[in-house]
């Protein structure tokens, strides 16, 4: 079976939920431990989004520029790559 993916045709064979969970798990570490005020705001907005029925992929998409900026400042290349992959394949 061919496992290639083409998001412009379908999201079949793309584990967007899994990719989102992995990226969000890394971000949750910052939310829990950082004193940067953005993370508290992010936590609140995530809760509001979930209350409106939106998922974490949407939350990440909404804050992608800010997340990139903060992750670049702290040199978290792994999480940046995860977000790039999510944007390219799932958003």
UniProtKB/TrEMBL annotation:
Biological process per Gene Ontology, one example term: nitrogen fixation
Keyword tRNA-binding on entry: no
Keywords: Nitrogen fixation
UniProt similarity note: Belongs to the CowN family.
NCBIfam families: N2Fix_CO_CowN
Function: Is required to sustain N(2)-dependent growth in the presence of low levels of carbon monoxide (CO). Probably acts by protecting the N(2) fixation ability of the nitrogenase complex, which is inactivated in the presence of CO.
HAMAP family membership: CowN (MF_02117)
Descriptive protein name: N(2)-fixation sustaining protein CowN
Organism: Blastochloris sulfoviridis
Originating gene: cowN
């Amino acid at each position: 079976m061919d496992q290639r993916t083409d998001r412009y045709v379908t999201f079949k064979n793309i584990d967007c939920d899994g990719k989102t969970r992995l990226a969000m798990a890394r971000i949750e570490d910052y939310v829990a431990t950082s004193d940067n005020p953005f993370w508290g705001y992010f936590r609140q907005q995530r809760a509001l989004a979930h209350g409106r029925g939106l998922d974490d992929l949407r939350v990440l998409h909404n804050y992608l520029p800010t997340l990139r900026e903060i992750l670049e400042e702290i040199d978290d290349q792994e999480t940046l790559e995860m977000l790039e992959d999510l944007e390219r394949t799932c958003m």
